[in-house]
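so my prof wants the structure for this chain in the tokens format not the other one, which i didnt know existed until like an hour ago. anyway here's the sequence
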Amino acid sequence: MPNGNRLPSHRLGDPESPDDYFLFTAADNDFITTHGISIGQPYDAGLDNDNQFMVFRVTLPGAVLGDLVRNCRI
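here's what i got, hopefully its the right format
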């Protein structure tokens, strides 16, 4: 995100679905691991929690992406 003020999305470019976008989300494992290191010390949280990357197709009828960013203060 070049200026840190953009929704992680991509317009599909499908002329039959002009209001459809891909919305990208990611979640790290929040340090839940059996083989972690924090402040230079190894630790075991007792379980592993995988990172997640998801893509959603969303329809935003009549939406202008720039307006969404301004109105949501993202």
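also thought this was worth mentioning. The radius of gyration is 18 Å.
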